[in-house]
Amino acid sequence: MQLAKISLSPQHIKLVTNAGWILTKNEILLHIKKAFEELYNWQQLTIQSRALPADVLKPGGKISRGENYLGLPWIVLDNPRHFIKGNIFAVRTLFWWGRFFSTTLHLSGLWQQKAGQQLLNAFEILQKEPLKICYSGDEWVHDINNSSYLPIESIDRERFETIIKEAPFIKIAIQTSINNIENAIEILMQQFEFIVTIIGDGS
């Protein structure tokens, strides 16, 4: 029996024999996790000043991380996070290595119905921002550049209302470039405040 060989390119061998780049990656992820912890504290101040439903706030926020969303590391802050199948109310802040930072409002079921009128009232405001909406297909696709996400500016009010009332879920998302990493927390906080302000009263 001939045993298999591990065939690597010179570039791969250079990487696999160098632990430094993995350690550096881990340091970067730790910095971002700590920044998300600070972001969570700022988010809590905003949440306290808005009339968000008590039920969606009970679980509290949560930071998670992983190594393989479509092959790349990620860190997520879910706050608020009410993930009940068919009745979701969540705001997700995502860092996706090499891709982008993003803030996503995720609604379904009861919460989609309750927040629907606020979203309709804010339609013109939403159209002026670089927001995208996802409302069909896989509910757990987080790649905003996926074809299932459409710019809200490309949708008229009638279609938007139909989506709000009839889609099985809605996700409204905005992203910022990794190149903005030094100002990312400030930008993400502004995105969070924008979303929470729209859906906060009466939802």
Helix content: 40-55%
Terminal-residue CA separation: 67 Å
Counted up, domains total: 1
Shape: globular
Mean pLDDT: 93
> Helical element count?
7
* Secondary-structure element series: HHHEEEEHHEEHEH
Q: Could you tell me the strand content as a percent range?
A: 25-35%
Estimated radius of gyration = 19 Å
User: What is the oligomer described by this structure?
Assistant: single chain
State the low-pLDDT regions, or none.
none
- CATH architecture field: 2-Layer Sandwich
How would you sum up the major sheet?
A: 7 strands, antiparallel
- SSE class: alpha+beta
Number of strands: 7
Strand order of the largest sheet: 1-2-3-4-7-5-6
Q: Any idea of the CATH topology?
A: BirA Bifunctional Protein, domain 2
Q: Tell me the name of the CATH class.
A: Alpha Beta
Secondary structure layout:
Layout: H1 10-16, H2 20-48, H3 54-57, E1 62-69, E2 72-84, E3 87-96, E4 100-107, H4 109-121, H5 123-127, E5 132-134, E6 149-151, H6 157-166, E7 170-177, H7 184-200
Antiparallel strand pairs: 1-2, 2-3, 3-4, 4-7, 5-6, 5-7
Structure overview:
The structure is a single chain. The protein is an alpha+beta fold. It is 42% helix and 26% strand. It contains 7 helices and 7 strands; from the N terminus they run H-H-H-E-E-E-E-H-H-E-E-H-E-H. The chain has helices at 10-16, 20-48, 54-57, 109-121, 123-127, 157-166, 184-200; strands at residues 62-69, 72-84, 87-96, 100-107, 132-134, 149-151, 170-177. A 7-stranded antiparallel sheet has the order 1-2-3-4-7-5-6. The radius of gyration is 19 Å and the shape is globular. The protein starts with 9 loop residues before the first helix and ends with a helix.
